[in-house]
Amino acid sequence: MLLLKFSPNFFSVLDILLVAVILYQLYNLVKGTIAVNILIGLGVIYLILLGLVSLDKDNMPMTGKILSNLQSVGIVAIVVVFQQEIRRFLLLVGKNASLQRNREWWMYFFGKKKVEKNNYARIKPIIDACKSMKQTRTGALIVFVKYYDEQFYQNSCEVLEAKISKRLLESIFQKHSPLHDGAVVIAGNKIKSASCILPLTDKTDLPAQFGLRHRAGIGVTESNDATAIIVSEETGEISYAKHGRVKINISFAELEKLLNKDF
Ligand SMILES: Nc1ncnc2c1ncn2[C@@H]1O[C@H](COP(=O)(O)OP(=O)(O)OP(=O)(O)O)[C@@H](O)[C@H]1O
Questions:
Q1: Cβ proximity of 189 and 154 under 8 Å
Q2: Atom of ligand 1 at shortest distance to CA of 198?
Q3: Which of 16, 138, 187, 246 is most solvent-facing, going by the fewest CB within 10 Å?
């Protein structure tokens, strides 16, 4: 019946497309996380209550009351339970609408040549340090942020504000260094801080060998506009995390490409 009445026009198609994009992005955000189970749980409870109430509206006043109360506090509860996912979603929207991104579009449309970022000098010490730490099986976690949120990082970190150098990175992550536990955070041309405790991802579909270092590396890219290099102490493998996804065992050529793009 509903389909018969439906007469598509530009706005209805746009409406459907927007809903599809939003649902797809939400699905991407919660995919593989514990949030999926919470969502399913909420959905099941809601459907059961809805079913009971619609079966016998008059004789089940208590269930009806629970359902109406659930609806009124539902939004607040959802915001509290899914605050990490909402934060990630807003970050994603903000990032896509950011000035930098728009500037690139303007440059593209107006035919200005995009100046090729030559980051190599900046990236080289980091890649060299990773090469050396891979060889010596030194565990490391290096996080790159576009915006250094002092409150977020400084609570748990040791502030450094130091020039990026291979030897400094190696010294920080050396097993006997007092700063080796935790992550190094880099923003712009500076190593901002070391020994940072980061939020862990709650993803349930990660490889079994991933422990806290990998979980922290992925976690920080979920809740912040950040990317992370993880050097495994066990295997020496280099992994790269971005938007809560991780590429495992990447080559140094690939690492250079990724850093050149993201850093
Ligand atoms: N919340 C955290 N934030 C930043 N670093 C952390 C955090 N939790 C643990 N780490 C780091 O991870 C190290 C422990 O790594 P663990 O062996 O559990 O990780 P892993 O993912 O298995 O990596 P590896 O392959 O290097 O063993 C700690 O010594 C510490 O340096």
A1: no
A2: 3
A3: 16
Residue 115 confidence class, pLDDT cut points 50, 70, 90: very low
List ligand 1's pocket residues with C-beta within 6 A: 139, 141, 181-183, 197-198, 200, 210-214, 216, 232-234
Numbered ranges of CATH 3.40.1700.10 in the chain: 115-262
Q: What pLDDT score was predicted for residue 101?
A: 53
Distance CA 113, CA 97 (A): 21
Task: Quickly state the pLDDT bin for 222 (edges 50, 70, 90).
Answer: confident
Q: 């991104």: which residue's tokens?
A: 101
Decide: 95 and 243 in contact? Cβ < 8 Å.
Answer: no
State the Cα–Cα distance between residues 142 and 23, nearest whole angstrom.
Answer: 32
CA of 174 to the centre of ligand 1 (A): 14
Contact 216/141 with Cβ under 8 angstroms?
Answer: yes
Pairing of strands 140-145, 183-187: parallel
Q: For residue 133, is pLDDT > 80?
A: yes
Per residue in 25-52, pLDDT (tens digit) is 777 777 766 777 777 888 888 888 888 7
Q: Which atom of ligand 1 is nearest to the CA of 141?
A: 5
Q: Which atom, in ligand 1's list, is nearest to the CA of 199?
A: 1
Ligand 1 center from residue 178 Cα (angstroms) = 15
- Ligand 1: distance of its center to the CA of 258 in Å? 22
- For the 115-262 domain, the top CATH level (class) is alpha beta
CA distance 180 to 194: 8
Alpha helices per DSSP H over the chain: 2-5, 10-30, 34-55, 61-81, 83-96, 99-109, 120-135, 150-154, 166-173, 212-223, 252-262
What gap in Å lies between CA 262 and CA 254, rounded to an integer?
Answer: 12
